[in-house]
Amino acid sequence: MTRKPTAYILLLVTACALLAGCSTDGSYMRQRLQYVSDCNRADTVFTARWLPTVDTLVGYFDRHGSANDRMMAHYLKGRVHHDMGESPQALECYQRAAEQADTTRSDCDLYTLYAVYGQMANIFDVQYLPDDEMQALKIAERIAWKDKDTLTALYTYELRKKPYFLRNDTDSILHIERRARNLYLQIQNDSMAARTSRVPISLLLDRGQYDEAGYLIRYFEGNSYYFDSSNNIRKKYEIYYYDKGRYLLASGKPDSSLFYFTKVLQAGYKEAGYKGLLMYYQKKHIADSIAKYATLFAKANDDSYLHVNQNAVHQISAMYDYGRQQRLAEESRATAARQKNYLVYAFFAFLFAAAIAAFSYNRVRIQNLLRISQLLKAKDDLQSLLEEKQAQLDIFISKNASEIKRITQESNQILIEHIREKKALEQQIEDMNRKLSLFSGASREKAFLNTPIYAAIQSHLGKAGDVPLSDDEWQQLHQMVNAIYPNFSL
To answer: CB-based contacts of 322: which residues, under 8 Å, 6+ apart?
Structure first.
């Protein structure tokens, strides 16, 4: 017996909250939007509990917000799905966010728009879609240039190496890194220029281009600010020691290479460490050690392969959690079935109105076709009369040549009159054809499909929730039908 009062209290609280949110020009909702945005910038890991919040923000700002508000709301919803591992839903939100941006306005939030395409590129990279990733990176770079953010634009350009890596296109990777290094040097950013050397060092060593690799190693160590005073690289970058060891081994300094291969192994990179030690002992021709580290390298390689594949399976299963999506889809269908009745009724009412309009159009069209048929018959009658007169003229000429001049003048006069009447009838036919074309079903259909109210009805039908047509939209529908179907009244 206590449920109804409790429900009424909750309803009242909700109504008050909505009124508070709608008051002061939506300042409350903007505060909520800003809060979620701040959490995102603070690298908050979003979970499912954030979905109701971002759903509310999207629903509100789609109706009341500016282009920047709508873009931010859809972007944050995408970030929630992204952190939940639901990449398809995240991509859909990012694409909708991009669609909201009005780049023609001077106040367009280019920072958020850049983030949208940057996140899309990350998803495409994980999904091994290099073409889509490249397209997203190019758009993000253009946005950064438009925002006059040179450093971000150059960094985004450098990220093109990732889709090229997925394609195993090492030539393009080297080209991108060289050009990025030169562009960084043009803006006098030596540290970023040096950091572009990291990937090329490994690729050049694979190709046996040791002189260029050695130059980049010295440049990287001297300008990247990744090394301390003892020339130890910062944490999480120790894999570099493997390439340093490879270079020293190829340069005839095997003992120095042993030092770096040991360091990379101590840092936890077993596959690289064991492979480096194997190359060292092969260089030294020490059979026992070769056998030992060949076995260790093979095991580390197998473990690494298994780990990579397990991660890939985990990522794919996280991206495509079909079980959860099926439940959500079922709930969405049940909700839509309950809430879309009004739009369904409105749609069928519109179809009924369109049928009546089509009937009226066909009736008018038949009348015009009948009128055209009458005009064509009159034209044929005049043509027959003209031919008859011409025949009579020929007979008369043959019988009485002396009156040719008089008859010729009379015939010319008659001909001129008939030609004038013929032209008048042809003009009437042309006018009726022009009017008939106005009633063309294709023209009316095209005119109707291009009206704003048709787009509005389609938008309502695509939304979940009970979203009736507004009074203004009904008025637009009334004006549209009267304009395109003059003989129909809605």
So the answer is: none
